[in-house]
Amino acid sequence: MTPKKRLLRVLNKQAVDRPPVICPGGMMNAAIVEIMTHTGNLLPEAHMDSHIMANLAADIHRLTGFENIGIPFCMTVEAEVMGSEVSYGSLSCEPKVSKEKYASFTEVICKDIPDLLCKGRVETVLNAIKESAMNYPEIPVIGNLCGPISLAASLVDPVAMLKGLRRDKDNAHRVLNYVSNVIGDFAALMIGCGASVIAISDPTATGEILGPQLFEEYAVRYINQIISTIHQRETKVIVHICGNMNRVRNLLPSIQADAISVDALVNLQKLKNDFPQMITMGNVSTYLLQDGLPDTIKKTTKRLVEEGVDIIAPACGLSTSTAISQIQTLTQAVKE
Amino acid sequence: MVLKKEAFFQQLSDAVFEMDEEKAASVAAEVVANEIDAAEAIEQGLSVGMARAGKMYEEEEYFIPELLLCADAMYAGLDVLKVHLKSSGEVKGKIVIGVVEGDTHDIGKNIVKMMLETAGYQLIDLGRDVSPQKFVTAAKSEQAQMIAVATLMSTTMNGMGEIIQLLENEGIRDHCKVIIGGGPVSAAFAQKIGADGYAANAMEAVRMTKQIL
Fold first, then answer.
1. Which ipTM did the prediction report?
2. B104 part of contact set with chain A, CB < 8 Å
């Protein structure tokens, strides 16, 4: 069974020989320093050059044993084309929004989306996906996108954004609809270039930050709006939710994703018991991966497989100082 | 008069707790008009309201947006009252606060800052994406008794250890405590890098600060 077929079968709720082991990319990427210095395909250059981006994504797949190719390596592409300032970081530090374009929801001007998606690094990302899909037909290429609440918080000052979710609901919904359309259209372009799966990470959309009411009103609604755009193109979606999820747990089934990826804080076995229909993904602690003993990594991974977790993956973005051997311990534990 | 004063304090507290900026400002103006002591109104009105909000936050009934709006109401009241303070009031301690280099968001830091200010500390806010050296330089020039540092991303955690190292190199580690917080860090990590404490949330940060300083 090819890695692509295995992942797609899992996302289709079909039987497989064993769970796939992946690291989707985007916020959750495995572009660790050891790989980059070994191969010479370096960040931050890879953020801006489609060929280096595709090469680095392939290096990660090849050297770690993760059964996918994940593109891009940040969650700033969308915010940048929408007008926010981005600093590209360094070899060991990911890009970030250095200044949001708008001070409040009210100020946001909704621009022409096809026009936006011709700008910035959108084409870089699309070409990298195209190149990867061509070179690796048996490996799933995952196109990664910033979730709607996080994108809103990268476009509008985050404090004003959070207040606006309660204070200025009309404008909040107007902007969330706008960013969700940008994300959905970007996803459609990724699919057109050969992405076999889309992954959405929305680290600002946690139960701890928003609380259940705003999580349902905004996060669930707009994540679902994006998912529906992707499903129209017959493509599967993984959604990663950060945090402990205690207060929003009951809302999970209302998210229409084909798999839900969770943080290390979440007990996946319990989650599977509570929601047997849900395809679960996770959640090997990234601290364990960085500092843990190989034997502990192996045991933790095996336990997740035994518990029936559908897709094995790190619980969050990897620390760039993690060693290749630590990640190999994880991927081998799933495969052997 | 006593009753009346307390009624005003209750209204200030309620305005903060109910996220009502306009009410906080207008009640504060009434407090001034009635010649009620501004310091007392801040402490027994606005601060009490903020503490109630903090308690709701701890109990997971209020979340970050609610807490931010409560703070707006508190600051609206404070703006009116502070010009009428008879003395600058007793400052409990000076704290340098910021988010380490490479980090994007500072929502959590703003909440911690707000709660520490409410508790009577003076905060020097360095913002987000702050280099370890900048923390130490600020702590030195401001003669701060504590550095409160947060991170949201595991990739930037190591900057926290660097701060402590730099304080030691400068020979001011004994005079400057360090507490850390944020998603990826833990009490164990705090111990590992030699920080004085780890706080999981803003309310804990206040409790810890009171203990340490």
1. 0.88
2. yes
